[in-house]
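We emphasize that the prediction below concerns an isolated chain of 133 residues; any contacts that depend on oligomerization or on bound cofactors are therefore not represented. The input was used exactly as deposited, without trimming of termini.
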Amino acid sequence: MKIAMALLACSLTGWHGVTQANPDELAPGQALYESKCLKCHSVSTNEVGPRHQNVVGRRAGSVPDFVYSTALKQSKVVWTEEMLDRWLSNPEALIPGQEMDVRVRSAEERRLLIAYLKSQSTSTSPPSLTSKH
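Result of the prediction step, given as a C-alpha coordinate string:
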Protein backbone atom coordinates (compact mmCIF):
# COMPACT_ATOMS: atom_id res chain seq x y z
CA MET A 1 0.00 0.00 0.00
CA LYS A 2 2.86 2.41 0.87
CA ILE A 3 4.44 1.85 -2.53
CA ALA A 4 1.15 2.39 -4.35
CA MET A 5 0.60 5.68 -2.48
CA ALA A 6 4.13 6.87 -3.23
CA LEU A 7 3.74 6.00 -6.91
CA LEU A 8 0.40 7.82 -7.02
CA ALA A 9 1.94 10.89 -5.37
CA CYS A 10 4.79 10.86 -7.89
CA SER A 11 2.42 10.54 -10.83
CA LEU A 12 0.28 13.41 -9.54
CA THR A 13 3.34 15.69 -9.35
CA GLY A 14 4.26 14.82 -12.93
CA TRP A 15 7.45 13.00 -12.09
CA HIS A 16 8.59 10.87 -15.01
CA GLY A 17 11.29 8.86 -13.24
CA VAL A 18 9.00 6.65 -11.17
CA THR A 19 10.61 3.44 -12.39
CA GLN A 20 14.01 4.65 -11.15
CA ALA A 21 12.86 5.72 -7.69
CA ASN A 22 12.75 3.68 -4.58
CA PRO A 23 9.66 4.94 -2.75
CA ASP A 24 11.33 4.04 0.56
CA GLU A 25 13.90 6.79 -0.15
CA LEU A 26 11.38 9.58 -0.58
CA ALA A 27 10.28 9.90 3.06
CA PRO A 28 13.83 9.98 4.49
CA GLY A 29 14.88 12.28 1.65
CA GLN A 30 12.01 14.64 2.42
CA ALA A 31 12.86 14.57 6.14
CA LEU A 32 16.48 15.45 5.33
CA TYR A 33 15.30 18.22 2.98
CA GLU A 34 13.10 19.64 5.73
CA SER A 35 15.90 19.54 8.30
CA LYS A 36 18.78 20.73 6.10
CA CYS A 37 17.30 22.83 3.30
CA LEU A 38 14.09 24.52 4.48
CA LYS A 39 16.03 27.16 6.41
CA CYS A 40 16.84 28.78 3.05
CA HIS A 41 14.86 26.94 0.35
CA SER A 42 11.37 25.77 -0.51
CA VAL A 43 10.24 23.38 -3.21
CA SER A 44 7.71 25.78 -4.72
CA THR A 45 8.76 29.33 -3.79
CA ASN A 46 11.94 31.37 -3.73
CA GLU A 47 13.23 32.12 -0.26
CA VAL A 48 16.80 33.02 0.74
CA GLY A 49 17.70 30.46 -1.96
CA PRO A 50 15.86 29.60 -5.18
CA ARG A 51 12.95 27.16 -5.31
CA HIS A 52 13.85 23.53 -5.89
CA GLN A 53 10.83 22.39 -7.90
CA ASN A 54 12.17 21.08 -11.22
CA VAL A 55 15.78 21.57 -10.16
CA VAL A 56 16.90 18.25 -11.69
CA GLY A 57 17.72 19.02 -15.32
CA ARG A 58 17.70 22.80 -14.82
CA ARG A 59 20.67 25.00 -15.56
CA ALA A 60 22.20 26.56 -12.45
CA GLY A 61 21.29 30.20 -11.95
CA SER A 62 18.31 30.05 -14.28
CA VAL A 63 15.18 30.63 -12.17
CA PRO A 64 14.03 33.89 -13.78
CA ASP A 65 12.62 35.54 -10.66
CA PHE A 66 15.57 34.86 -8.34
CA VAL A 67 18.71 37.00 -7.93
CA TYR A 68 21.79 34.74 -8.08
CA SER A 69 25.46 35.39 -7.44
CA THR A 70 27.42 36.26 -10.56
CA ALA A 71 29.41 33.03 -10.16
CA LEU A 72 26.29 30.87 -10.24
CA LYS A 73 24.67 32.78 -13.11
CA GLN A 74 27.82 32.48 -15.21
CA SER A 75 28.39 28.80 -14.50
CA LYS A 76 27.48 26.32 -17.18
CA VAL A 77 26.38 23.71 -14.64
CA VAL A 78 23.21 21.72 -15.28
CA TRP A 79 21.77 20.08 -12.19
CA THR A 80 22.16 16.41 -12.95
CA GLU A 81 22.32 13.88 -10.13
CA GLU A 82 26.13 13.89 -10.35
CA MET A 83 26.34 17.69 -10.25
CA LEU A 84 23.89 17.92 -7.35
CA ASP A 85 26.03 15.40 -5.47
CA ARG A 86 29.17 17.46 -6.11
CA TRP A 87 27.33 20.68 -5.20
CA LEU A 88 25.93 19.34 -1.94
CA SER A 89 29.32 17.89 -1.05
CA ASN A 90 31.13 21.22 -1.49
CA PRO A 91 29.37 24.10 -3.30
CA GLU A 92 32.43 26.36 -3.27
CA ALA A 93 34.65 23.70 -4.84
CA LEU A 94 32.16 23.22 -7.68
CA ILE A 95 31.39 26.90 -8.33
CA PRO A 96 33.90 29.27 -6.68
CA GLY A 97 32.29 32.53 -5.59
CA GLN A 98 28.79 31.12 -5.12
CA GLU A 99 26.91 32.06 -1.93
CA MET A 100 25.65 28.78 -0.42
CA ASP A 101 27.53 27.93 2.76
CA VAL A 102 25.97 24.55 3.57
CA ARG A 103 27.68 21.22 2.90
CA VAL A 104 26.21 17.74 3.21
CA ARG A 105 29.17 15.55 4.10
CA SER A 106 27.35 12.21 4.15
CA ALA A 107 27.16 10.50 0.75
CA GLU A 108 24.04 8.62 1.89
CA GLU A 109 22.29 11.85 2.93
CA ARG A 110 23.20 13.44 -0.43
CA ARG A 111 21.80 10.40 -2.26
CA LEU A 112 18.51 10.61 -0.33
CA LEU A 113 18.24 14.38 -0.82
CA ILE A 114 18.79 13.98 -4.56
CA ALA A 115 16.16 11.22 -4.76
CA TYR A 116 13.71 13.58 -3.06
CA LEU A 117 14.65 16.48 -5.38
CA LYS A 118 14.11 14.19 -8.37
CA SER A 119 10.63 13.42 -7.07
CA GLN A 120 9.93 17.17 -7.17
CA SER A 121 11.06 17.52 -10.79
CA THR A 122 8.88 16.99 -13.84
CA SER A 123 11.80 16.00 -16.02
CA THR A 124 15.20 14.49 -15.37
CA SER A 125 16.64 15.24 -18.79
CA PRO A 126 18.91 18.29 -19.00
CA PRO A 127 17.79 21.18 -21.20
CA SER A 128 19.94 22.34 -24.06
CA LEU A 129 22.97 24.21 -22.80
CA THR A 130 22.28 26.87 -25.39
CA SER A 131 18.84 27.70 -24.00
CA LYS A 132 18.65 31.03 -22.19
CA HIS A 133 16.53 30.70 -19.06
